[in-house]
From TrEMBL:
<comment type="pathway">
    <text>Amino-acid biosynthesis; L-homocysteine biosynthesis; L-homocysteine from S-adenosyl-L-homocysteine: step 1/1.</text>
</comment>
<keyword id="KW-0554">One-carbon metabolism</keyword>
<dbReference type="Pfam" id="PF00670">
    <property type="entry name" value="AdoHcyase_NAD"/>
</dbReference>
<feature type="binding site">
    <location>
        <position position="206"/>
    </location>
    <ligand>
        <name>substrate</name>
    </ligand>
</feature>
<keyword id="KW-0520">NAD</keyword>
<feature type="binding site">
    <location>
        <position position="210"/>
    </location>
    <ligand>
        <name>substrate</name>
    </ligand>
</feature>
<dbReference type="Pfam" id="PF05221">
    <property type="entry name" value="AdoHcyase"/>
</dbReference>
<feature type="compositionally biased region" description="Acidic residues">
    <location>
        <begin position="1"/>
        <end position="10"/>
    </location>
</feature>
<dbReference type="InterPro" id="IPR042172">
    <property type="entry name" value="Adenosylhomocyst_ase-like_sf"/>
</dbReference>
<feature type="binding site">
    <location>
        <position position="151"/>
    </location>
    <ligand>
        <name>substrate</name>
    </ligand>
</feature>
<dbReference type="GO" id="GO:0004013">
    <property type="term" value="F:adenosylhomocysteinase activity"/>
</dbReference>
<protein>
    <recommendedName>
        <fullName>Adenosylhomocysteinase</fullName>
        <ecNumber>3.13.2.1</ecNumber>
    </recommendedName>
</protein>
<dbReference type="GO" id="GO:0006730">
    <property type="term" value="P:one-carbon metabolic process"/>
</dbReference>
<dbReference type="InterPro" id="IPR020082">
    <property type="entry name" value="S-Ado-L-homoCys_hydrolase_CS"/>
</dbReference>
<dbReference type="GO" id="GO:0005829">
    <property type="term" value="C:cytosol"/>
</dbReference>
<feature type="region of interest" description="Disordered">
    <location>
        <begin position="1"/>
        <end position="25"/>
    </location>
</feature>
<dbReference type="InterPro" id="IPR000043">
    <property type="entry name" value="Adenosylhomocysteinase-like"/>
</dbReference>
């Protein structure tokens, strides 16, 4: 028994005829009347995204994205709206869909539609709606995208499969998730990537901030809002000790939880040990833990066998981008009863009365069930904007048909834009010191592989 969070009392947005105040109906959102409320949300987000605002001011004169037709597929929140409106201010035309069926803020989507961005998204889409929205962004008479901004790789995959002629004319792809980057490298390896792509996920300004610090704060937010759980003394297993896992573990440990880690990589496993966590196999602790959190980017990490062995009222959730980590499909069987107890909270009940608490049907917990800190998203969004500008304006031949990392100089520029928020003052190298280290005084200070 699956059901999404769209309220059953009204027709699907796809069936509605809506127009914004300028008479345009080039969008599909839950309710265009919520635009004013959404505009306030965007204005609040702007307060904490000063780097994007300063990028707007700095580049407004020269319009570095004039002529860019960007098709985007990201979470649609107040923070990503600030990014979209920045891209428009820099000269781009944008069409946008959501990369997650639960993470769209309906009022924000309405505000974007009112402002003239062609946005196709609402909270609680069905799987069919999800692909329909992506398709509507790509296929429009008289409009052909020349840039892709993706989070998770679904949009890239759709254009590659369904619109190969459009795909060949794309000037660049910017991808920000572990999953999406993995898919790009697969395409590249198979010799099928015919456009340059920028791997923003592995930029220092994404890995160290969005993946680590954002998850360190939002994991607790998502769990508290949905379950009111107390963490002190709880036994928690975190699957994966990459940047996301590190953030989750740090937050849980600080609140007094007993944290176990599962890991396939000996280096990450050793880091977990040095940080004071027990590294175990999931099967060793599954009977005793109170919470299971996945953040591996893999599939079938928590299997039906694990779910069968969990204790009563164990909470199960996912912090990875895709809903592949927990085998939710295996729970949709006649002998198990699903009970929706809150928005995004299901109790899955076994024949003997045991319940497992499943959050967001195994989808991304923080963006489905709570919000994420605006400031951290400012860092990622600025990195994405610069990657788009770089790829769009690159002279012929600078980027081949491959996956690239953002130049380190740009990473450092993004970081420097955010320092004024903390009234932080950088030390400058003397000529002598710079010569001693073999560096330019103005950077880059780290090699590209850092």
């Amino acid at each position: 028994a699956s059901y999404t969070d769209s309220s059953d009392d009204e027709v699907s947005p796809r069936e509605k005829q809506q127009t914004n105040s300028k008479g345009s109906s080039n969008f599909c959102v839950k309710n265009i009347k919520q635009a004013e409320f959404g505009r306030r949300e965007i204005e609040i987000a702007e307060q904490d995204m000063s780097a994007l605002i300063s990028l707007r001011k700095r580049a407004q004169g020269e319009k570095p994205l004039a002529g860019a037709k960007i098709v985007g597929c990201t979470h649609i929140t107040a923070q990503t709206a600030v990014l979209m409106e920045t891209l428009c201010a820099l000269g781009a035309q944008c069409r946008w869909a959501a990369c997650n069926i639960y993470s769209t803020q309906n009022e924000v989507a309405a505000a974007l539609a009112e402002a003239g961005v062609a946005v196709f998204a609402w909270k609680g889409e069905s799987e069919d709606d999800f692909w329909w929205c992506i398709d509507r962004c790509v296929s429009m008479d008289g409009w052909q995208p020349n840039m892709i901004l993706d989070d998770g790789g679904d949009l890239t995959h759709w254009v590659y499969k369904k619109y190969p002629s459009v795909f060949k004319k794309i000037r660049g792809i910017v991808e920000e998730s572990v999953t999406g980057v993995h898919r790009l490298y697969q395409l590249s390896k198979a010799g099928k990537l015919c456009v340059p792509a920028m791997n923003v996920n592995d930029s220092v300004t994404k890995q160290k901030f969005d993946n680590l610090y954002c998850c360190r704060e939002s994991i607790l937010d998502g769990l508290k809002r949905t379950t009111d759980v107390m963490f002190g003394g709880k036994q928690v297993v975190v699957c994966g000790y990459g940047e996301v896992g590190k953030g989750c573990c740090a937050a849980l440990k600080a609140l007094g939880a007993i944290v176990y880690v599962t890991e396939i990589d000996p280096i990450c496993a050793l880091q977990a040990c040095m940080d004071g966590f027990r590294v175990v196999k999931l099967s060793e602790v599954i009977r005793q833990v109170d919470v299971v959190i996945t953040c591996t980017g893999n599939k079938n990490v928590v299997t039906r066998e694990h779910l069968d062995r969990m204790k009563n009222s164990c909470i199960v959730c996912n912090m990875g981008h895709s809903n592949t980590e927990i085998d939710v499909t295996s729970l949709r069987t006649p002998e198990l009863t699903w009970e929706r107890v809150r928005s995004q909270v299901d109790h899955v009940i076994w024949p003997d009365g045991k319940r497992v608490v499943l959050l967001a049907e195994g989808r991304l917990l923080n963006l489905s069930c709570s919000t994420v800190p605006t400031f951290v998203l400012s860092i990622t969004a600025t990195t994405q904007a610069l990657a788009l500008i770089e790829l769009y304006n690159a002279p012929e031949g600078r980027y081949k048909q491959d996956v690239y990392l953002l130049p380190k100089k740009m990473d450092e520029y993004v970081a420097s834009l955010h320092l004024p928020s903390f009234d932080a003052h950088l030390t400058e190298l003397t000529d002598d010191q710079a010569k001693y280290l073999g560096l330019n005084k103005n950077g880059p200070f780290k090699p590209n592989y850092y």
